[in-house]
Amino acid sequence: MAKILVVDDETNILELIKFNLEKDGHQVITATSGEEGLRLARLELPDLIILDVMLPEPDGLEVCRRLRSDRATTALPVLMISARGDTLDRVVGLEMGADDYIPKPFSPRELSARVKAALRRIKHDKPPVIVSREIKYGGITVDLEKFQVQVNGELVSFTPKEFKLLKILISHPGKVFTREQLLDRVWGFDFNVDTRTVDVHVRYVRQKIEQDPANPQYIKTVRGVGYKFSENTAK
C-alpha cells in the first residue's frame, strides 16, 4: 500500500481517481488547489503525487517546479495529468521534473498501471544503504539528500533526469543497464521518448563528469546492450 496525494480542482475527477486508487489498496490524500497540494506534499511526504496541470494559480507546472526546488519534496515522484495532450505540454511537464504524464481522458485501468509502474520504479531505484547519504567514486560525489553532484570538488549543475540517470548507474557499479531499463526507470511511461533519449542524456552526463567524454572513465558503453558505471573506478 502506498500513500498517494492527488491534486485536481475537478471534484468528479478527484473522486474517481480516489475511488480507484483506494480500490487498489492505497491511502489517498486529496487537494483541490496548487497551494494546498504543496502544503500537503511537505506535510505528508507521500510516496507518489498525481498532479493536474490545469489548476488555478499556481498551475500544475509551477507546483511541480516548486516541489523540485524544495529540498523536502524534490525527490517525490510526480505523475502529471492534463486534458491538454499537446506534445509541447508533455515536454514542458517532463522538463519541470515530472516522472510521467497522462493525457485526459484516461481509463481507471491505465491510471492503475501507471501508478503501479511508478511505485515499482521507486522500489527498484532505492540506492544501497549509505550512512553518509553520499556516494563517492573517484572525483565524483553524489549527495542523495541535497541532490547535488560535485566533480573534483566543484559543484556541477544537473537536471532532474540527468541526476536520476547518474544516481541509478553510480548506485550499481558494474551492473549493465539496457537502454530500455534506463528509459523505464528515468522517464517512465512516457510514449514520446525512445532509447535515443537515453544516449543523449548519457552524453550530457559524461560532458559533466568525465575528463575526456570521448574516452569515458566512469560511464562505460556496453556495445549492443547499454551502459554501466565502471566498478574499477577507485572510490
From TrEMBL:
Q: Does the keyword Repressor apply?
A: no
Q: What Gene Ontology terms describe what this protein does at the molecular function level?
A: phosphorelay response regulator activity; transcription cis-regulatory region binding
Q: What's this chain's function?
A: May play the central regulatory role in sporulation. It may be an element of the effector pathway responsible for the activation of sporulation genes in response to nutritional stress. Spo0A may act in concert with spo0H (a sigma factor) to control the expression of some genes that are critical to the sporulation process.
Q: What is this protein called?
A: Stage 0 sporulation protein A homolog
Which residue intervals define the domain OmpR/PhoB-type in the entry?
A: 132-231
Which residue ranges hold the DNA-binding region?
132-231
Annotated Pfam families: Response_reg, Trans_reg_C
InterPro entries xrefs: CheY-like_superfamily, OmpR/PhoB-type_DNA-bd, Sig_transdc_resp-reg_C-effctor, Sig_transdc_resp-reg_receiver, WalR-like, WH-like_DNA-bd_sf
